[in-house]
User: Which sequence fits this backbone?
């Protein structure tokens, strides 16, 4: 049973309608940040209040929810949000990427390819890709209206001037459908190529900053770069120490205080799946 | 005096009906060309249909003015929407968040809000009542949400429809978004979709 004191999926219906209207406009204008009247949620800002509100407005009793935090299903943030929706919406949950109809994520895109009909909900801290370059909302809004994105290219150029290469490794800015520069949330740039022409619907929720944006399925998402400094993703020298996977994003795990370390899959479901297959 | 038919025929399980309808509309607008069946979730007075009535009951409330075209004059539809959603009705297209088009043969985009360069989301969504989504002259669709091209064959529509949509597309990121309905079915035509004659 759903907790009796709450409406299905926690939010009241008026709030859901407001969020749903924002989501529909976000889908119609890919990469554009739609303002919405973000609510206080029973968790602090920074824990995914934007993603939780988007999920609450979208989820239904037949959905199967997966929640990941930095790729892991078993970290505090992921466990709490999964338990939250299991309680207030009485939905089935899973850790299997393939089985999920809605995947709420903090800072990763699963390694397993997503399929049509799935919805990926990103938790976003700072939705405005120009915010650290121009603090005034009135100015960044005008820059988006005028499609004036020179500042972002200057930032990437300064990386090259200082480090010899583009040193931005996460929240790497993308151009959506050739119109809006968008912050992909702090996913590693390793994941950026997965956003392009994804069969899944991608929704982004920023609770504190009160913005929702979206990438429809099969939309063009291009990471910004220069002809002589093309966009590149991180590469890893060694495979995952647990499952031996290559071409996946790895986390560094410190093993002791004498410099011992190992690199393992950030996507725990993908890693467990591979180890299960190896044992079978 | 409100007619009895304006009071009946709303969602039976409003929370779950609204969620299901929203998901279908979300799917429709994120995958133009695909048709989604809502089932008969509301029974609004004619000429409002099950799909158009369900969409407006799902999305409209007291913060979203609704505009009705001449097809609904003298019917209980205005009262039905007012009773079931609380939405204010407006005669002025420019004030409308949602507009329901009951005479698609005379469809025009004149006067509806298309948003501003700074706030392109402050634009109207048109809910268009048609006879069919798949039995009319074929349209080829391309754009976000579509892998390659998709087909849709809505009818009846004004002969100017292609020109209207081309002009609407040219406004991007401003523009109107359309939810096409027939019977219990819906299909989405967001402002990003490009149309041409002929099937896939």
Assistant:
């Amino acid at each position: 049973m759903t907790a009796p004191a709450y409406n299905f999926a926690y939010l009241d219906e008026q709030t859901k309608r407001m969020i749903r209207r924002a989501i529909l406009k976000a889908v119609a204008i890919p990469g554009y940040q739609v303002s919405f009247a973000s609510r206080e949620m029973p968790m602090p800002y920074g824990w995914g209040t934007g993603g939780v509100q988007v999920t609450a407005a979208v989820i239904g009793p037949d959905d199967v929810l997966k929640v990941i935090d930095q790729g892991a299903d078993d970290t505090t943030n992921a466990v709490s949000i999964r338990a939250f929706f299991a309680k207030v919406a009485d939905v089935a949950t899973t850790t299997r990427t393939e089985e999920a109809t809605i995947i709420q994520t903090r800072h990763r895109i699963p390694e397993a390819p997503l399929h049509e009909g799935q919805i990926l909900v990103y938790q976003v801290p700072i939705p405005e890709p120009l915010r650290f370059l121009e603090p005034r909302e009135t100015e960044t809004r005008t820059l988006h209206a005028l499609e004036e994105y020179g500042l972002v290219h200057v930032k990437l150029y300064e990386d090259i001037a200082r480090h010899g290469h583009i040193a931005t490794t996460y929240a790497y800015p993308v151009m959506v459908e050739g119109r809006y520069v968008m912050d992909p949330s702090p996913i590693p740039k390793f994941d950026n190529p997965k956003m392009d022409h994804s069969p899944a619907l991608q929704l982004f929720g920023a609770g504190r900053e009160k913005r929702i944006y979206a990438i429809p399925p099969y939309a063009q998402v291009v990471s910004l770069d220069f002809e002589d400094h093309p966009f590149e993703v991180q590469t890893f020298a060694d495979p995952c120490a647990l499952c031996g996977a290559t071409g996946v994003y790895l986390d560094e795990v410190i093993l002791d205080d004498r410099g011992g370390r190992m690199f393992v899959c950030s996507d725990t479901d993908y890693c467990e799946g591979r180890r299960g297959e190896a044992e079978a | 005096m409100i007619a009895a038919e304006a009071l009946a025929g709303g969602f039976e399980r409003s929370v779950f009906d609204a969620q299901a309808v929203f998901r279908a509309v979300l799917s429709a607008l994120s995958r133009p060309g695909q048709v989604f069946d809502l089932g008969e979730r509301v029974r609004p007075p004619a000429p409002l249909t099950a799909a158009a009535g369900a969409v407006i009951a799902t999305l409209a409330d007291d913060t979203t003015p609704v505009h009705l075209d001449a097809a609904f004059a003298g019917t209980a539809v205005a009262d039905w929407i007012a009773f079931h959603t609380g939405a204010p009705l407006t005669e002025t297209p420019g004030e409308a968040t949602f507009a329901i088009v009951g005479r698609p043969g005379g469809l025009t985009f004149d006067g509806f809000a298309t948003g501003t360069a700074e706030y392109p989301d402050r634009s109207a969504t048109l809910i268009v009542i048609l006879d069919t989504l798949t039995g009319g002259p074929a349209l080829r669709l391309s754009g976000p949400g579509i892998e390659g091209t998709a087909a849709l064959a809505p009818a009846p529509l004004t002969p100017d429809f292609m020109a209207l949509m081309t002009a609407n597309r040219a406004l991007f990121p401003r523009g109107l978004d359309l939810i096409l309905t027939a019977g219990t079915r819906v299909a989405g035509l967001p402002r990003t979709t490009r149309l041409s004659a002929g099937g896939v």
Summary: Chain B is about 25% helix and 20% strand. The first strand of chain B starts at residue 36 and ends at 37.
